[in-house]
Amino acid sequence: MEFQVDCEKIASPKTIFGRIFIQETFLSYLWYNCYSFLTIVLLRIENALSPTKSMSLNELFLFSEAEATWAYGFSLIDKYSDWKLDMPNPEYIKSGYENLIERTNLAYLSTVNFILAHEFAHQELSHCLAIDSDHLKSIEQEKEADLRAFEIIMAGEKNGDVNNIKLGAMIGVWCLAMVVILHNEF
User: Fold this and answer.
1) What is the pTM of this model?
2) How many angstroms separate the CA atoms of 34 and 143, rounded?
Protein backbone atom coordinates (compact mmCIF):
# COMPACT_ATOMS: atom_id res chain seq x y z
CA MET A 1 0.00 0.00 0.00
CA GLU A 2 1.20 3.49 -0.81
CA PHE A 3 -0.11 6.45 1.18
CA GLN A 4 0.17 9.65 -0.81
CA VAL A 5 0.62 12.92 1.07
CA ASP A 6 0.28 15.67 -1.46
CA CYS A 7 -1.58 18.86 -2.14
CA GLU A 8 -3.59 17.62 -5.07
CA LYS A 9 -7.28 17.35 -5.79
CA ILE A 10 -8.84 14.03 -4.84
CA ALA A 11 -7.94 10.89 -6.68
CA SER A 12 -9.90 7.70 -6.12
CA PRO A 13 -8.01 4.94 -4.34
CA LYS A 14 -6.64 2.57 -6.94
CA THR A 15 -5.18 -0.90 -7.09
CA ILE A 16 -2.65 -1.25 -9.88
CA PHE A 17 -0.49 -4.34 -10.34
CA GLY A 18 -1.12 -5.42 -6.74
CA ARG A 19 -0.37 -2.03 -5.13
CA ILE A 20 -3.00 0.06 -3.40
CA PHE A 21 -2.68 3.82 -3.73
CA ILE A 22 -4.67 5.99 -1.31
CA GLN A 23 -4.36 9.72 -0.87
CA GLU A 24 -4.49 11.87 2.25
CA THR A 25 -6.84 14.34 0.54
CA PHE A 26 -9.26 11.48 -0.19
CA LEU A 27 -9.19 10.47 3.49
CA SER A 28 -10.01 14.07 4.50
CA TYR A 29 -12.87 14.04 2.00
CA LEU A 30 -14.16 10.81 3.64
CA TRP A 31 -14.06 12.33 7.11
CA TYR A 32 -15.92 15.46 6.02
CA ASN A 33 -18.58 13.34 4.33
CA CYS A 34 -18.99 11.21 7.46
CA TYR A 35 -19.34 14.29 9.67
CA SER A 36 -21.79 16.04 7.37
CA PHE A 37 -23.90 12.97 6.76
CA LEU A 38 -24.18 12.09 10.44
CA THR A 39 -24.93 15.64 11.53
CA ILE A 40 -27.56 16.30 8.87
CA VAL A 41 -29.23 12.89 9.25
CA LEU A 42 -29.22 12.95 13.05
CA LEU A 43 -30.74 16.44 13.13
CA ARG A 44 -33.37 15.46 10.56
CA ILE A 45 -34.29 12.29 12.48
CA GLU A 46 -34.50 14.12 15.82
CA ASN A 47 -36.80 16.73 14.31
CA ALA A 48 -38.91 14.16 12.46
CA LEU A 49 -39.48 12.32 15.75
CA SER A 50 -40.65 15.56 17.36
CA PRO A 51 -42.75 17.26 14.67
CA THR A 52 -43.98 19.96 17.04
CA LYS A 53 -40.44 20.92 18.01
CA SER A 54 -38.59 23.38 15.81
CA MET A 55 -34.82 23.45 15.50
CA SER A 56 -32.99 25.35 18.22
CA LEU A 57 -30.44 28.02 17.30
CA ASN A 58 -27.69 25.52 18.15
CA GLU A 59 -29.25 22.87 15.88
CA LEU A 60 -29.65 25.40 13.06
CA PHE A 61 -25.99 26.35 13.48
CA LEU A 62 -24.92 22.67 13.42
CA PHE A 63 -27.04 22.06 10.32
CA SER A 64 -25.59 25.10 8.54
CA GLU A 65 -22.06 24.10 9.58
CA ALA A 66 -22.64 20.54 8.31
CA GLU A 67 -23.75 21.89 4.94
CA ALA A 68 -20.64 24.10 4.75
CA THR A 69 -18.49 21.11 5.76
CA TRP A 70 -20.14 19.01 3.04
CA ALA A 71 -19.45 21.73 0.46
CA TYR A 72 -15.81 22.00 1.54
CA GLY A 73 -15.37 18.22 1.32
CA PHE A 74 -16.79 18.21 -2.19
CA SER A 75 -14.58 21.15 -3.20
CA LEU A 76 -11.59 18.85 -2.68
CA ILE A 77 -12.75 16.86 -5.70
CA ASP A 78 -11.93 19.81 -7.96
CA LYS A 79 -8.94 21.33 -6.21
CA TYR A 80 -6.93 20.95 -3.04
CA SER A 81 -7.20 23.46 -0.23
CA ASP A 82 -5.94 23.24 3.33
CA TRP A 83 -8.16 21.75 6.04
CA LYS A 84 -10.22 24.59 7.46
CA LEU A 85 -9.48 24.67 11.19
CA ASP A 86 -12.63 26.64 11.99
CA MET A 87 -14.68 23.66 10.75
CA PRO A 88 -15.17 20.39 12.63
CA ASN A 89 -11.93 18.50 12.92
CA PRO A 90 -11.01 15.12 14.43
CA GLU A 91 -7.81 16.53 15.92
CA TYR A 92 -8.99 19.86 17.32
CA ILE A 93 -12.33 19.15 18.95
CA LYS A 94 -14.37 22.19 19.98
CA SER A 95 -16.19 22.06 23.29
CA GLY A 96 -19.64 20.54 22.89
CA TYR A 97 -18.63 18.53 19.80
CA GLU A 98 -17.10 15.54 21.60
CA ASN A 99 -20.01 13.13 21.05
CA LEU A 100 -20.56 14.12 17.42
CA ILE A 101 -16.84 13.87 16.59
CA GLU A 102 -16.63 10.48 18.34
CA ARG A 103 -19.58 9.18 16.30
CA THR A 104 -18.04 10.65 13.15
CA ASN A 105 -14.71 8.98 13.86
CA LEU A 106 -16.41 5.59 14.34
CA ALA A 107 -18.27 6.00 11.04
CA TYR A 108 -15.04 7.19 9.39
CA LEU A 109 -13.12 4.12 10.56
CA SER A 110 -15.86 1.85 9.20
CA THR A 111 -15.77 3.79 5.92
CA VAL A 112 -11.97 3.47 5.63
CA ASN A 113 -12.27 -0.26 6.43
CA PHE A 114 -14.78 -0.63 3.61
CA ILE A 115 -12.60 1.33 1.14
CA LEU A 116 -9.52 -0.75 1.98
CA ALA A 117 -11.54 -4.00 1.80
CA HIS A 118 -12.81 -2.81 -1.60
CA GLU A 119 -9.23 -2.36 -2.84
CA PHE A 120 -8.15 -5.71 -1.38
CA ALA A 121 -11.16 -7.28 -3.12
CA HIS A 122 -9.87 -5.95 -6.45
CA GLN A 123 -6.63 -7.84 -5.78
CA GLU A 124 -8.38 -11.00 -4.64
CA LEU A 125 -10.63 -10.94 -7.71
CA SER A 126 -7.63 -10.32 -10.04
CA HIS A 127 -8.99 -6.95 -11.18
CA CYS A 128 -5.67 -5.24 -10.60
CA LEU A 129 -3.58 -6.99 -13.22
CA ALA A 130 -3.95 -4.07 -15.60
CA ILE A 131 -5.84 -0.84 -16.07
CA ASP A 132 -8.89 -1.68 -18.16
CA SER A 133 -10.46 0.93 -20.41
CA ASP A 134 -13.63 -1.14 -20.99
CA HIS A 135 -16.16 0.90 -18.99
CA LEU A 136 -18.80 -1.84 -18.72
CA LYS A 137 -16.19 -4.27 -17.44
CA SER A 138 -14.94 -1.60 -15.00
CA ILE A 139 -18.44 -0.99 -13.65
CA GLU A 140 -18.94 -4.73 -13.19
CA GLN A 141 -15.59 -5.01 -11.41
CA GLU A 142 -16.53 -2.15 -9.07
CA LYS A 143 -19.79 -3.89 -8.18
CA GLU A 144 -17.92 -7.16 -7.56
CA ALA A 145 -15.36 -5.37 -5.38
CA ASP A 146 -18.12 -3.62 -3.40
CA LEU A 147 -19.94 -6.89 -2.72
CA ARG A 148 -16.73 -8.69 -1.74
CA ALA A 149 -15.65 -5.77 0.47
CA PHE A 150 -18.96 -5.93 2.31
CA GLU A 151 -18.48 -9.68 2.85
CA ILE A 152 -14.96 -9.05 4.17
CA ILE A 153 -15.96 -6.38 6.67
CA MET A 154 -19.03 -8.29 7.84
CA ALA A 155 -16.88 -11.39 8.39
CA GLY A 156 -14.66 -9.31 10.69
CA GLU A 157 -17.58 -7.97 12.76
CA LYS A 158 -17.27 -9.16 16.33
CA ASN A 159 -18.66 -6.43 18.58
CA GLY A 160 -22.26 -6.27 17.37
CA ASP A 161 -21.65 -2.99 15.54
CA VAL A 162 -23.40 -4.08 12.34
CA ASN A 163 -25.17 -0.74 11.85
CA ASN A 164 -21.90 1.19 11.94
CA ILE A 165 -20.34 -1.27 9.47
CA LYS A 166 -23.31 -0.84 7.12
CA LEU A 167 -23.12 2.93 7.51
CA GLY A 168 -19.39 2.85 6.67
CA ALA A 169 -20.05 0.76 3.57
CA MET A 170 -22.83 3.09 2.45
CA ILE A 171 -20.73 6.23 2.93
CA GLY A 172 -17.76 4.50 1.26
CA VAL A 173 -19.76 3.58 -1.85
CA TRP A 174 -21.24 7.10 -1.94
CA CYS A 175 -17.82 8.79 -1.66
CA LEU A 176 -16.22 6.57 -4.30
CA ALA A 177 -19.15 7.09 -6.66
CA MET A 178 -19.11 10.87 -6.28
CA VAL A 179 -15.40 11.11 -7.05
CA VAL A 180 -15.78 8.86 -10.11
CA ILE A 181 -18.88 10.68 -11.38
CA LEU A 182 -17.52 14.18 -10.81
CA HIS A 183 -14.18 13.27 -12.40
CA ASN A 184 -16.05 11.75 -15.37
CA GLU A 185 -14.10 8.51 -14.92
CA PHE A 186 -16.95 6.45 -16.42
Assistant:
1) 0.85
2) 22
